[in-house]
Amino acid sequence: MAVADHKCPGCGAPLKFNPKNQKWDCAYCGSSFGIEDLEKNEKKYNEVKAEEASKLDLYKCPDCGAEIVADENTSATFCVYCKNTAILKNKLVGKFEPDYIIPFQNTMEDATNAFKGICKKRPLSPKFFSDPKNIAEMKGVYIPFWLFECDSNGSITANATNVTSWTSGNKRYTKTDTFLCTRSGNLVFSHIPVDGSKHFDNAIMNSIEPFDYDKMVKFSHSYLSGFLAEKYDLNSDETFDDVKKRAETTTTNLLKGSIKGYSGVVTIKDKEINVIKTDVKYALLPVWMLNVKYKDKIYPFAMNGCTGKMIGDIPVDKKRTVVIFLIMFVSLFAIFILFQFLAGGKF
Length: 347
Description:
The protein is of the alpha+beta class and 347 residues long. The chain has helices spanning 35-38, 42-54, 108-120, 132-135, 202-208, 236-257, 318-342; strands at residues 15-18, 23-26, 32-33, 57-60, 67-70, 88-91, 100-101, 139-168, 171-195, 217-218, 228-230, 266-294, 297-304, 310-312. It contains 7 helices and 14 strands. The strands form 2 sheets. Strands 4, 5, 6, 7, 8, 9, 10, 11, 12, 13 and 14 form an 11-stranded mixed β-sheet that branches. It has a 3-stranded antiparallel β-sheet with strand order 1-2-3.
């Protein structure tokens, strides 16, 4: 076969990755292949990697600057971030070789059903959000991430209190004893993720974490079939400050949490936390994305392509709310009048 990663050995048709069976399915002859099948000829696989990379297309948005990578079987007709339709298509230039990837575990059908579920829970939302044309724009995107390995060592000094109260006669007494506590320890962190994209909202990514790193495998271009992938525009050094803060916060909280046996509050007086980076890997993590543009504002929705957790906010349609309120008011008023009439009452 000409391209070991993407072409069906039986009929030569393009293969697309199926999140349900974690295999590459051929829509023409019905065959399915595992990653072992695609890579069984290691020599040939290495020879075609460069050719495969050259077949990746780069879609660049002239408005927000986002760069989306896709294989030759995937079309990108709009920017998944700002909804601009003037996407410029070019061949990917430069090296694109992540260390790892977590393949999509959920299908587009799973993602659209999750989004429809959010819409149903918000009956006062604009009908525009549940328009099939909007839902059809759901895209599976591999987001670039740096995964850090870190060692953290530190110590804290804290005041812990015991509060006791008693009554003597007609008076109430309260006694507060304060104790000086110190704690120190070492922690090893694995797979601290940090978003390598300026365009993807970090708050959204934090909301759909965690990812199942047990599903992470060695990167292969084959997994991009049928999906988009964004190029990172923040290198690992630029993102390490976020990792450091995250490790420092976790270390501090764990040390503080080890101070037990006191009835009052524990207040940290001083701390010294050192975080050392021991390794970093580049990985692509799966996210189903849908950005709905409504009244010149973008409303982002994202689903973890591994766990199925979806987040997003839908605004309230004020006109629809007023109409529903008036209908309910008129209906209740009509029921009240009917009740009065049947009861023979007077106003």
